[in-house]
Amino acid sequence: MSIPHPGPLSDALTIQYPPAQLEPATHTDPAPRPPLLFKVTGQLLLTPGVILAFGVPKAVLSYRGENANPTTLDFVFGVICAIA
User: In the chain, how many domains are there?
Assistant: First the structure.
């Protein structure tokens, strides 16, 4: 089955689906990779995400010279860490 490529050169460009003939594999697969040293979990992804979510705005606000908003972010972050 041949699907023409849209455009002015549709006669010259065609996509072959499925491939007419599959070539046999002439190379061997590399050695299998060893398993990860740790399991990727939600907690493992959530912790740096929360730190970045509070740390980046705090850094920006502090850089702008604000005092109250970074302190509030510290308080909220501390409460979330205490609850978790």
Answer: 1
